[in-house]
Amino acid sequence: MKLPLPITLIIEKAINTFIEQSPKMRQQFSTYAGKLIKIELTDFNLAIFFYFSNNSIKVMSEYESEPDTTFIGSSVALSQLIQQDMTDTLFTGNVVIQGDMHLGEDLKNSFSQYPIDFEEKLSTILGDVFTHQLFAFFNRTKKWTNASEQIIQSNISEYLVFERERFACQHEISSYTSSVDQLRLQLDRLEAKIERLEICKK
Amino acid sequence: MDHNDTQHTTHFGYKQVAESEKQSKVTAVFDSVASQYDLMNDLMSMGIHRIWKRKTIEQSGVKSHHKILDLAGGTGDLAKEFSNMTNANGQVILADINAAMLECGRDKLIDQGIISPIQYVQADAECLPFKDNYFDRITMAFGLRNVTHKEQALKSIFRVLKPGGKFLILEFSHPDNQLFKKIYDQYSFKLLPVLGKLIANDSDSYQYLAESIRMHPNQETLMSMMQQAGFEKCQYINMTSGIVALHSGYKF
User: Fold this and answer.
1) Are B77 and B99 spatial neighbours (Cβ–Cβ below 8 Å)?
2) Phi and psi of A2, rounded to 5°?
3) Cα B132 from Cα A4, distance rounded (Å)
4) Beta-carbon contacts below 8 Å between A and B
5) Chain A nearest C-alpha distance from B56 (Å)
6) Rounded Cα–Cα distance for residues B133 and B115 (Å)
7) DSSP letters along B76-99, please?
8) Are A20 and A73 in contact (CB under 8 A)?
9) Would the pTM of this model clear 0.90, i.e. be above it?
10) Which of A40, B21, B50, B140 has the most CB within a 10 Å radius?
11) Is the ipTM value over 0.90, yes or no?
């Protein structure tokens, strides 16, 4: 899927308006001039390209060039990437980064340093009422997605444990592992006693 | 034998003129419309020309170190974007055969604070004054249909393009939908000259614009012309139902 041009232009305008208002951020982003970043949102099957030019960022739905860094992940995982430590997110496997990792980390840190209030910025272009409704819709969708994810996870777990009896439940596993731990400790103690007796015998 | 009988002719809109006359006639058209060119572009295309140019930028795949030639660059819409996308290692040359258009473009960009890395060259696409294999990207937006010897221009462009470089032609073309074509014809031949008269006080130039678009090779023909000039991996994208087509090809 490709983002329609008017949408990319709105995103571009919002980002550039925000950058223009913050000289520090503008200076920081100017260091990325000439870099091409690709973001692939797996849940929407959507790719967005960000070309850092001298004093602005171009947002495009396609670009006929190899990106310097590509971020691949769901929209939720990518938004978490900005808020959390990059290593944590990468190790969970929710986000894949290809290409120049250093640039990816640098960008991630820059975005974390300057959290963007997109709602406030977009409201200056789209108007307060429409922007509020748009973001309320996004927030509702995000909440619904998170809740649905938890419910599905819980249902699958319940089905596999209690109905199909394929796996043990959490407290059974805890009790089993704790018994194993105790047994291991007892064995260690027994081993130590035997070693002591052998030394005394000698 | 009369000298005129031996002269080759070419089209100027729907009229047949001597090849040697075409360039001066085209120059007269653009001299006349140069000052109102941007305004007329916005009015005639209802602003859609910005989308067509944006698509050209997306397809260009320009990188910051590239040397870019914006041929028939006119008022510098593409050159402005490219200048923003290149760094000190890059270079953008805005070239146009028409001095009035080039001057308008240069003044506009300077007024907008855009000075480097754009250089301005008055040049004929048929014999480009640049060394071989120099540019990484060459674009030509709404210029090729005014060139007298298109094959010669394509060869000249091929010569100055680097191996691995990409050439893009954004040009009016032929709509693929018959119903849409009829509406478009009515618009081009009835409304366009009136708009030209009202805004630029020149209906003839806009009559020429409509006619020259009809005389321009269609999508497939232009693509085969590019292939004959030596370009490879040629393709085109129709935009706004084929009113405009973006052709591209590589030199390998």
Assistant:
1) no
2) -115, 140
3) 39
4) 38
5) 10
6) 25
7) -HHHHHHHHH--TT-EEEEEES-H
8) no
9) no
10) B140
11) no
